[in-house]
Amino acid sequence: MFGRRFLPIKSITNSLPKSGSKRLIDDKFTFMTYNMLSPHYMWPQVYTYVPDEYKDWNYRHKLLEKEILNSYRADIMCLQELTASDYHQYWEEVIDRDFHYGSRFIAKPPPQYWQKDAKDVDGVGIFYNLNKFDYISSTSIHLNDLIGSFDLDELSYLKSKQVKLTDGAGNPKGEKTLLEILKSRNQVGLFVALKHKDTNTIFVVINTHLYWKYDEVKLTQCLIIMRKLAKIIRDLLVGEHGTTYNKMKVVFAGDLNSTRDSLLVKFLRGEVVRYENLDIVNPLRPYLNRCIYDDVSDDVFEHTCYSGKLKGIFDYIWYHDKDFELTKILTGAGVSKELEVSKQFGLPNANHPSDHIPVLVEFKIL
């Protein structure tokens, strides 16, 4: 790939050998998040700048296979805009048979406007290397299922909060309550608990793709995910695995459709977000306190999404710096340089099958 390097962040200390064994403890793993760009979202009015041969799904799929399975193949991979048909007909079987990976997937329910087959709706998937991890459990949620996520004061706020609606071009089109919008959306979240074999550390990996508009909607969807995560952690602590808080770690990834100065990012950092007369705080602050962009200089990434007029850093990997040390990262700014040199407007193109680039890192378990 043009200008993309797996850049070391810090020097890595040598691992200590296991007691009674000559083999070194493998306390590092690679992690990737990637929005694949569903073939059913390649809207003609958006991707006018892409030549037809690079819009072709067969062409793009071959590049996706090369990137995901050969070029990068991280130990844990979080994929968004993966269709149900593509997962069940290709990825689920190939990743298991050829690479000894496990996987889990949840599809979004079809939206009201959907006229294609339900199997063509996209969702999110998590793939994990069974040579490094044992599968424990998985949970999937629909982010419009609000039962049990909010108390009465919060529900009252959601019912009263008016959100100004816009069309795809940003033009005003009336108002709805925040509760109405949340119930009408079809986003999902996927949680997979894994046990790292060499360190006996339990991970909870979360993958999601939040709604692309309205800060209040994205923030509330993320709050639902965090509150569900808190329940999952409690269940793991009292379950058969008998883990403890200091052995439990969380990695939260996905296309959050949010810039680094957004309310959502402030919430994930642990800042108090004011909802009129309510203070909203991330209940998972002890497990998540930074994202990968906090550990690299601004010149490492310009964007992670290059979709026509919509460009920015929207794809995130969140963790806690007491749990993991970021040791390597795949640079992204070279893609911007590639487009500039070739005088191209955005992605996908001949070399990149999605309008997002894969975000790939290496972590050391602390």
From TrEMBL:
The Endonuclease/exonuclease/phosphatase domain, residue ranges: 32-356
GO molecular function terms attached to this record: 3'-5'-RNA exonuclease activity
InterPro entries per the UniProt record, alphabetical: CCR4/nocturin_mRNA_transcr, Endo/exonu/phosph_ase_sf, Endo/exonuclease/phosphatase
Domain of life: Eukaryota
Pfam families per record: Exo_endo_phos
PANTHER family, sorted: CARBON CATABOLITE REPRESSOR PROTEIN 4, RNA EXONUCLEASE NGL1
Protein name: Endonuclease/exonuclease/phosphatase domain-containing protein
Natural source organism: Torulaspora delbrueckii
